[in-house]
Design goal:
homodimer; alpha/beta; 355 residues; two-stranded antiparallel ribbon; TIM Barrel
Chain lengths: 355, 355
C-alpha cells in the first residue's frame, strides 16, 4: 500500500525516511534506532576510551564520527546527531553535569520565579556552535540516501530537569510548580519553547533534515494535566517550527493512552513505545498521522526467531498505512548483542511492501 | 445508578467497599488510599521514630496500630494491612533488606536454575506468623463497616525483585531470563504463584476480607509479552483463589493499554492509574468489571478547588456503572498535605449517587 510505483528503488533522491515522515510512497520501510550511536558499538566504546561523554558531544569531528558509526555498520536510513538534551539547558545558563551513574544533573534546581533570571535565550550558533558544527560535519560525509536527524528535549521534559535537578520518580516539584505557581511555570515553558524552537531551527539550517523532540517525562501526567500543561506549549512550538521545512518527530514513553491528544500537537511523526500494538495505534491515529516504533529495546535480547517474528508483526501492522518508520520504542540498551541489530535491520530491509 | 434502595445508610452489614467489589449497590462510593498508613501521617511518623520499618512490619500490635491510623483519622472504608511485598520473598528464603534510600533489595539475585533451590514454599502461619497476627489484631478493633484488605506482590513483580535484586529501569535481567530460559522462568513463576496464593489464603483465614495483588512492574512488558509471560500465571493464581471467598483487587501502573488483557485475569477489581480517563476505562471494561482509582497522587498538591474538581470528575465517571471504589492511582506521597486528604475523603463521602 505504501509502495512506490518505481518498485525496487527509492522514488526520488530524497531519503526514504523523510518521504515516510511526509506520508509519501517509499520503496521499503525506513529504519533507524534511538540511541543508535552508543555503547553497544565497539567502535563507539573505542572513541569513549579516549574522551569523556561531554568532550565527545562538544568536539564536532568526534561527535560526527560516532553519529556516522551505526549508519556505516548497519546501513541505517537515518543518522541521529550524537548529543544530549541537557546541553541546551547549559547553553541557557544552567550548570549541568553528566555522571556515569544516575544520569545527568542540573546542579542548582529552579525553585522560584527569581531563579528564572539565571536562564537566558542562547544564540545556538554561539553557545551551541559545537552542535551545529557537528551537524555540518556529518552532512558533508553522509550519503544522500540517509536522512540526518537533529533533536531536542521538549519544553516540559527540559522543565522537569530544571526543577527536579535530574530525573524523578514522581516529578513532585515540577507538579507543585505547575499547580501552585502557574505563572512561573508558564514563564519557564514560554522561555523553553523559544529556546527549543531556535535550537531546532539552527540545527536545520546547519543541515538536519528532520528533528525529533523528546518529551520523555510527559509520562507522569494525567490526560487532563497533559492537555493543560503540555499540549498548548507543544502546539506553540510546532507553530514556530512550521517554516523550517523539516518534519518534526515527537517522542514520548508510557503515553499511549494520550495518543489522540498528542496527535493535536501537529508533529509529522509520533513515536510509539511498546505498550500498544502497532495496529491499534495506527487505527486510533488514522491515515494522516505518520508513526515510528515500536519494538521493545529488550526484545533485542530475545532468541533470533522470536525477535524476527516480533519485528515482522510490527512491520505488517505499521505498513498498513503510509507514513511508517521502523524504530525501537526507546533507546537501545548498551548490552544489546550486535547480531540482534543486524537481524532486525535485515528483516526491515527485506520486508516486501504489499503492492 | 449504583445507589441502594435504602438511601442514606449501608444496605447491609457488609462493608460498602466489599459490596462495590461485587458490583452490588452501595449507599455511597467507598474510598481508601494506597499506602494510606504511612509517613504523611504525624501519628505514623511518631511510631517510626521508635522502631525501624522492618520491626514495625514484624510486630503485630504495632503493624495493627498503624494500619488503623488512617481509618481513625479520615474514616476510610478500607484498612489495608501495613506490610511489605518483599516479606513473602524473605519467608521463601531470599535475603532482603530495606534501606531508607533506593528501595528494598534482594541481597543475592537469582541468576540460574540452581538458584531456585534457595527458595521454598513457606508456611504462612509459621514464617509469616507476624503478618497473620497483625491481621487478627486489626480485625478485633475494626468497625464492621470497614473492610480489612490484605495484599501481596504479584508473581511477575516478585520475580523481578528476585532476578534484578531490586527495582530496575529496563528489567533486562528478568527479560533475558524470560526470553532465553523459559523453563527456569516458568519454574520460578509456578513457585511464586503457589506462594502468593497460600499467603493470600492465610491472610483471608486470619481475617482479611479482600486482597490486593500488586503487579507494579508489569509496566515493562509489551502487550504480547504480557499475554505470554504474565496473564497465564495470573489466571492460575486467580483460579487458586476462587474458593477463598474474598474479592481480589489487581493493581498495576502504566498498563492502561492492556486493560482488556488484564480483564481476562478474573480479578474482581482492576486498579487504574491516572494515565487514562476513568470514563474511557469503564467504557472499555464494560458492566461486569469493578474498578478502583484513579486520582494522580500528585493531584493532592493541587489548589483545593482544582483538586475537588478533579475528584468530582473521577467520581462522576467512575460511578456511571456499579462496582466503583475511589482510590489514588498509586501510593500516597509522604509529603502530602493532610488537608488535601481530608478534602478528598469528604468530597467522596458527600458525593450523591444518581438514583
Amino acid at each position: 500500500m505504501t509502495k512506490s510505483p518505481e518498485a525496487g528503488r527509492n522514488a526520488s533522491a530524497e531519503p526514504r525516511l523523510l518521504r515516510a515522515c511526509r506520508l509519501e510512497p517509499v520503496d521499503r520501510i525506513p529504519v533507524w534506532f534511538m540511541r543508535q550511536a552508543g555503547r553497544y558499538l565497539p567502535e563507539y566504546r573505542k572513541v569513549r576510551e579516549q574522551v569523556p561523554f561531554l568532550t565527545l558531544c562538544k568536539t564536532p569531528d568526534l561527535a560526527a564520527e560516532v553519529t556516522l558509526q551505526p549508519v556505516e555498520r548497519f546501513g541505517m536510513d537515518g543518522a541521529v546527531l550524537f548529543s544530549d538534551i541537557l546541553l541546551l539547558l547549559e547553553a541557557m545558563g544552567a550548570a549541568v553535569s553528566f555522571e556515569e551513574e544516575g544520569g545527568p544533573k542540573v546542579q542548582v534546581p529552579l525553585n522560584e520565579e527569581k531563579d528564572l533570571e539565571r536562564l537566558g535565550l542562547p544564540d545556538p550558533e554561539v553557545e551551541l556552535r559545537f552542535m551545529m558544527d557537528a551537524i555540518r560535519s556529518v552532512r558533508r560525509s553522509l550519503s544522500p540516501e540517509v536522512a540526518l536527524l537533529g533533536f531536542s528535549g521538549a519544553p516540559f521534559t527540559l522543565a522537569t530537569y530544571l526543577v527536579e535537578g535530574g530525573s524523578s520518580r514522581d516529578f513532585r516539584r515540577t507538579k507543585i510548580l505547575m499547580y501552585r505557581e502557574p505563572r512561573v511555570f508558564r514563564r519557564l515553558m514560554d522561555l523553553l519553547v523559544k529556546a527549543v524552537a531556535e535550537c531546532l531551527e539552527a540545527q536545520v539550517r546547519a543541515g538536519a533534515q528532520a528533528v525529533q523532540v523528546f518529551d520523555t517525562w510527559a509520562v507522569t501526567l494525567s490526560p487532563g494535566d497533559y492537555r493543560t500543561y503540555v499540549l498548548p506549549f507543544m502546539q506553540e512550538l510546532l507553530g514556530r517550527l512550521k517554516g523550517i521545512g523539516a518534519p518534526v518527530l515527537h517522542f514520548s514513553l508510557g503515553t499511549s493512552t494520550l495518543l489522540e491528544s498528542m496527535a493535536e500537537i501537529g508533529a509529522q511523526v509520533l513515536s510509539l513505545d511498546w505498550k500498544i500494538q502497532m495496529g491499534a495505534a495506527r487505527a486510533r491515529l488514522g491515515e494522516r498521522q505518520a508513526v515510528q516504533g515500536n519494538l521493545d529495546p529488550s526484545a533485542l535480547f530475545k532468541l533470533p526467531e522470536a525477535l524476527e517474528a516480533e519485528v515482522l508483526n510490527i512491520l505488517r501492522e505499521g505498513s498498513e498505512k503510509p507514513g511508517y518508520i521502523f524504530n525501537l520504542g526507546h533507546g537501545i540498551h548498551p548490552a544489546t548483542p550486535l547480531e540482534s541489530v543486524y537481524r532486525v535491520v535485515e528483516t526491515v530491509r527485506s520486508f516486501r511492501l504489499e503492492p
